[in-house]
């Protein structure tokens, strides 16, 4: 089951890169915020249909959870807007690796300190190595894209 979840996460990551590339093109034609609006509107519609047809009944509703947990929905807006802007200027690969670097760094902080109600998982040398390798990868991808565009 763990391998399946990892594969699904990889597929999800691939889909985010496709979404970023498409939204970058769309944003350059119709505007950054219209592109973001389309993403959220279509996403909300599809999610509503999935909830209606597939979501089992829950004992707790959105109105019953701690209100700070609802803030997670707000973090998608800056991500989409930033990606639409960034892809147009630095390309899909650099923008995506930069996002992954930010995700990995924040995820390790959340894990290490057990923030936001998550179980604490200690920081290690191999986790530090992963961040360093990703930073190096970001540098290589960025420098190669600058060389080609120059």
Automatic annotation (TrEMBL):
<dbReference type="InterPro" id="IPR006750">
    <property type="entry name" value="YdcZ"/>
</dbReference>
<feature type="transmembrane region" description="Helical">
    <location>
        <begin position="93"/>
        <end position="116"/>
    </location>
</feature>
<feature type="transmembrane region" description="Helical">
    <location>
        <begin position="68"/>
        <end position="87"/>
    </location>
</feature>
<keyword id="KW-0812">Transmembrane</keyword>
<keyword id="KW-0472">Membrane</keyword>
<keyword id="KW-1133">Transmembrane helix</keyword>
<feature type="transmembrane region" description="Helical">
    <location>
        <begin position="128"/>
        <end position="145"/>
    </location>
</feature>
<dbReference type="GO" id="GO:0005886">
    <property type="term" value="C:plasma membrane"/>
</dbReference>
<dbReference type="Pfam" id="PF04657">
    <property type="entry name" value="DMT_YdcZ"/>
</dbReference>
<protein>
    <submittedName>
        <fullName>DMT family transporter</fullName>
    </submittedName>
</protein>
<feature type="transmembrane region" description="Helical">
    <location>
        <begin position="36"/>
        <end position="56"/>
    </location>
</feature>
